[in-house]
Design goal:
Distance between the termini: 50 Å
Strand order of the largest sheet: 5-6-7-8
Strand content: 15-25%
Order of helices and strands: EHHEHHHEEEEHEEHHEE
Number of helices: 8
Structural class: alpha/beta
Radius of gyration: 19 Å
């Protein structure tokens, strides 16, 4: 019998955590502070930038296409930035914050000047957190939020768009777009005829990528998800290096080398590393 509460939930970010370091996966996705019963999260400036830009653009998807840019997006962004300003964004001083905020504002200006698909009709998945049963037999659910689903009227289909706020290209072997393809295929009814990254730091429009083979994608994702499920069952989450870049920030939280700055929108205890 299916029971989503006992299932192992996996996503692109949690699988990526596991591939980088099982210990980092544990500390980000399983561990709860015994004092608060909340998961922990470490905020750093690049994450603050990405969160603010994504949240600002996401507000557009809730509006009809013709109304999306009637209110300046920069005004929306400025209000959202307040949520990550100062310590809450992991910034060490005003100069560092202004540097990152300027980069973020450049991205907002780019999509305002070149809205492209953002000015067209979009498809909204009804689930707040889209998910489907990747394997009922293994009790595994695949979940995740797709940044944007552009509706193509001429073919009654959709194009998946993932916004990138970092400076580097996504790894060609990344499972991000295959996972989003699987999620979009299982949680809405339109066929998918395009899939792309939009590097907001440099590109005026999304860059189309190859549509993945669904069978190959599902096989790869399920194989990794089973490894995650087995690690959870065995409680085996060791860092392969003793302590690596992926798990070190979270280990710092556990030993008191981080400052608690609040609770984030996911209900997690939010920390910044002590300098």
């Amino acid at each position: 019998m299916k029971d989503k509460y006992s299932a192992v939930w996996v996503s692109h970010s949690s699988i990526s955590d596991y591939l980088k370091c099982p210990r980092a996966y544990y500390l980000r996705n399983v561990y709860r502070d015994p004092k608060t019963n909340r998961k922990i999260s470490v905020m750093e400036p690049p994450l603050a930038l990405g969160q603010a830009v994504h949240d600002a653009i996401d507000t557009l998807s809730k509006l009809p296409a013709e109304e999306r840019f009637t209110t300046p997006l920069m005004n929306t962004f400025e209000k959202i930035w307040e949520n990550v300003s100062g310590q809450k964004g992991g910034f060490t001083d005003n100069e560092q914050e202004e540097k990152f905020k300027t980069r973020a504002k450049d991205m907002i200006n780019r999509v305002t000047t070149h809205p492209g698909p953002l000015a067209k009709k979009t498809i909204k998945i009804r689930q707040e957190l889209p998910y489907y049963w990747l394997s009922e037999e293994d009790n595994i659910i695949l979940c995740g939020k797709v940044d944007w689903l552009e509706y193509r009227e001429d073919t009654d289909s959709v194009r998946i768009i993932d916004f990138k706020t970092g400076k580097f290209d996504e790894d060609p072997e990344s499972l991000q777009l295959p996972i989003y393809y699987l999620l979009a295929s299982h949680t809405q009814t339109k066929p998918i005829t395009g899939i792309s990254y939009w590097y907001l730091d440099r590109d005026d429009e999304p860059v189309d990528m190859d549509i993945p083979d669904p069978e190959i994608a599902e096989k790869k994702v399920l194989e990794l998800a089973r490894k995650v499920a087995l690690a959870r069952k065995l409680g085996h989450f060791k860092c392969r290096e003793g302590e690596c870049r992926a798990c070190r920030p979270y280990e710092s939280v556990l030993v008191g080398k981080a400052t608690h700055v609040g609770i984030n929108t996911y209900g997690q205890d939010l920390y910044i590393l002590n300098k």
